[in-house]
Amino acid sequence: MSQDPVIRPIRPEDNPAVAAIIRAVMTEFGAVGPGYSINDPEVDTMFEAYDRPGAAFWVIEREGRVEGCAGIAPLKGGEADTCELQKMYFIPGLRGLGLGARLMDLCLREAAAAGYRQCYLETLASMSGARRLYRGYGFTDIDQAMGATGHCGCDRWMVRELSTGD
Fold first, then answer.
1. Mean pLDDT in the chain?
2. pTM metric for this prediction
């Protein structure tokens, strides 16, 4: 019998699975050179990277396997009231099941509860499904990157205002 997917906070033992998901999805979309999150130093230690104030990271587990992830953290080089939606990636078999919406709800709710007033994200034009999800959650396109993420390979940037009702 198939288990329903569970969204839960990342644990240290999830690090290898999360790193594998990030590398697989970024490779799938051709985002493998300099300037992409696949090269971020924290990819192999995501639990530790998000174990700090103002940051949180969740995984989606199905039948004992981590198959998706996303987190929020202060926008590096940005305003104190701005967080970044980071590393929202799902293996192909997890896409289209409504889990992106569930995880997005959680990320935005937690970001607002942490006192952030806006949420920023970086993505790629080729990630059209993800961009549809983001637009459905009120993210709007902006003309240039915010902060200093180092992700110069990204070609789409979006932002959304947050409220206590998120």
1. 93
2. 0.93
51 CB contacts (<8 Å, ≥6 apart)?
none
pLDDT, residue 2, reads: 58
What is the amino acid identity at position 105? D
Output phi, psi for 164, to 5 deg.
-65, -15
Query: How do the domains of the chain map onto residue ranges?
Result: 6-161
Domain 6-161 homologous superfamily, CATH: Gcn5-related N-acetyltransferase (GNAT) (3.40.630.30)
Look at residue 1 in the predicted model and tell me its pLDDT. Answer: 45
Question: What residue has token string 């979006």?
Answer: 158
Write the single-letter amino acid at 59.
Answer: V
Pick out the chain residues at pLDDT < 50.
Answer: 1
The secondary structure of 47-113 as a DSSP string is HHHH-STT-EEEEEEETTEEEEEEEEEE-TTS-TTEEEEEEEEE-GGGTTSSHHHHHHHHHHHHHHH
